[in-house]
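hi! just following up on the protien thing from before. the input was this:
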Amino acid sequence: MKRREFLKSGAMITAGTFLSCPRGRVGAEENPLDMVIVEQGEPRPMVAGALDALGGMSRFIQRGDRVVIKANISWDRVPAQAANTNPDVVAETVKLCFEAGARQVKLFDNTLNEPRRCYRRSGIEAAAKAEGADVEHIFERKFVETAFPDGELVRSWPVYKDVLDADKFINLPIAKHHSIGGVSLGMKNLMGVIGGNRGTFHRDFDIKIADLNNRIRPVLTILDAYRMLIRNGPSGGNLADVRLQKTLVAGIDPIAVDSYGVTLFDDTPVQKGFLINGEKRGLGTIDFGFLRVKTVTMAN
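and the predicted 3d structure came back as:
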């Protein structure tokens, strides 16, 4: 289903299933939404509106939870360049986690540029700390060799210990172009919690990225498409490659969220091998028209 077809359909059909992080479980409610698309707002109100429509952050985070939020902080870029998650999206997510009763919220990323510059210039470090999050630089000693029992090609890989120990894991990617997979969305964003020679993931990418997402499952995915890097990703740098989209997608089905994200690039999910493989693994559905979905348009 293409984006324009979805918008015409006004789809809100059947309820989907809940996905859990390594130690977390989402409490169900009667006929909850699976996915919310928010358009034409500013980042913090868009996050708040999406979570309100999904039933509130307390649907995902319970009192006393230790939460890990995986934003994209990989590049030495400012927010206007759209290579990293918008800092206001991160800050509002942190705030809502604490309001739901989280006792700790951690953020980190295995960056591709120099970490201190990435954390600072992205604006994420300051924004997340202002809301009480623990923002940590990666320590190599905290990567733990981890079995991937259901992996097709990846049978074992170093995973950051804090992810494995978390009660809840929230994925907070940005929607952008990528030279390998065509796009970088939620599934690709999880590469920031693994160590080792990550470059080998680019060989047989569609299978290996599905292996990774089969092992590490977010309780919630919030896709930041406020600004989109539409060319020369994943690092970008030229403002001419950035489109102001003013869209945010939040949901419990990571395949559906990424599938909608693909449509923002005027592409179709069924052409993306990583989504096809993820669906085959039971991680979610490409055809988000069969989920309970709501579109919210905010006043500017």
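Residues 87-99 form the longest helix (13 residues).
The chain has one domain: 3-297.
cheers
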